[in-house]
Model the fold of this input.
Amino acid sequence: MQKKLIINQNEITFDIIDKSSKLIRFSYNDQDYEFELNKLNGAEMTLKNGTDVFSTLFAKGKKTFALIDGKDVELEYPSKSSARKAQTEGPGRMISPLPGKVLKVMVKQDENVKLGQTLVVVEAMKMEHAIKANCAGVIKKIFYAEGEQITAGVELVKIESDTQ
Amino acid sequence: MTKQIKKILIANRSEIALRVIKTCQEMGIKTVTLYTSKESDLPHAKAGDESFNFGQGSLADTYLNQEKIIELALKSNACAIHPGYGFLSENALFCKKVKAAGLIFIGPSEESMQLMGSKKNSKQKMQEIGVPVVPGYHGEIQEADYLLKEAKKIGFPVLIKASAGGGGKGMRVVHQESEFNESLASAKREAKNAFGDEVMLIEKYIMQPRHIEVQVLSDSHGHHLHLFERECSIQRRHQKIIEETPSPALTENKRKEMTDSAINITKNINYLGAGTVEFIFDENDNFYFLEMNTRLQVEHPVTEMVVGIDLVKQQILVAQGEALSLSQEQIKQTGHAIEVRIYAEDPDNSFMPSTDRILYIGQTAKEQSRLDCGYKDGNMVSTDFDPMLAKLSCWGDDRNQAINEVLNELDHLPFLGLITNRDYLKRILKTNKFVDGELSTNFVNDYKDQLAPQELNERQVAVAIATMMFADFTPELNFNKQGQNKTAWDRLIQFRNV
Done:
């Protein structure tokens, strides 16, 4: 999955191969990387890449700030709302009505789904919310993985409607 | 005649208010703090035993509101007012009013403040008592050929300066006689436009000036001491960034000359309390009186670290009318201390002030490192006040060790959440010239090229990507109105270290 990230005002592109709360694999600038989360304690994050261990400090506000190798790093995703504007409204776009955590992703890429089928379960305010398909079709894109935090209004799943 | 001070109202804010409270707590003295509505969640606001909210308003209504401050001191039964630095600390009128209200002003007399508050009068006094001042002409005769004669007497290069001036307007550096008349005419035109006044002063221009100041301490029993010097040459636009003690420029003899000079001043003006005499030091090891600050200085921590004396405590004891219990011989300097000021500004973008919420300050790694900070995690930084966030001071057996301690600690104090000069400070400390102690007040400008930021390398970018991805699984930091961290930390994960 291709992703863009703005690092210290510079936009870079990379490809996520695998993403979970304990292991991230991605490709950047023609190089594959694998990072394991060793420790997460408040602002301290310790990562492992092979035999190399990196201790970073981070804080997540509207943007994410980090101290990496003694350097100040400011991180943010290119504005999601501007990306969405390029797409048409309507069936096939599954928007999260509230901020929370993706508890369970029930479908896979290219899977056929029926109208009303539960696609994603979001946990918010100690309750579970099932996000259901608003049309029948094929899962084209899943934007978030289990465990990820989301804000209200983000697109969770894209379905290519059968009627298109 | 001594009067025990039982309660102090601190007429200041942020880190200096907290600093004064610390000593008061150790001495068993109660404190009263002041704050404005917008500062309600800053650490100093309610740190005193009692606190008062000024409400909203400009500085004139709040920290510069002399009547209100005195009223609050009387209302809270404080016996004394500590003015901190800046604000009303060198305001002779305020000092007078405080005393008239029956309160103790922790600082010198209004006469000292008035004398040292006037550039003209203080320089005149220095000449009277034999303290060197920057050679110059400040007279009334303004004819071009007379000024040129004075300039030649002083010796080129000279600085032509508008008497009414400031901010660099109406100022010209003249390197040789042939340039003098044209520069004078040009400076006069500029001064007339900017200040409506063409009166010019001529001063010796010092090419690579170093700012070296002496900490002084006097009591009401005729004891006038010094606590050695500090060098504060690393400045930007006359704002200090890095200060240290001892100064790498001074030999023992020169140190004695300068500290003797400072004591000569305090003796002659009958000074009381803590103060700082600032000198300009030139490339030929000559020093000249610049000005005297009749208050506690921002950078006092480095002095405290090398002499082991609490300056605020001494200020309070002196204000109580006690005699200083230390003798000059007992005051010794050990090791080296460096202080760096962390500012909310972006040095890589024209030093634009940054305003945002501080998400994570960090913590010093060593107990003996000192962080004087007026903020805590979750506080919003605005442009209402000084952009200084904190002072970090570190001690070492020698200068190199002190530099390394500061560099190490700066990486433990990321001040995440807004842009600061943290990395810029590291760049300065790492330059060869700084390490060699070759400083001047032109430093940051002269070595601009060496102080440019470094891009992240590929490995660092990869770590940044991974950090962001893992951060996606954590909640956004949430601070409530009281500035408390209300983040849902139920996602705190601790793995066994592999």
Q: What stands out?
A: The interface with chain A takes residues 357, 359-360, 362, 410-411, 414, 416-417, 419-420, 422-423, 426, 454, 456, 458, 460-477, 489, 492-495, 497-498 of chain B (CB under 8 Å).
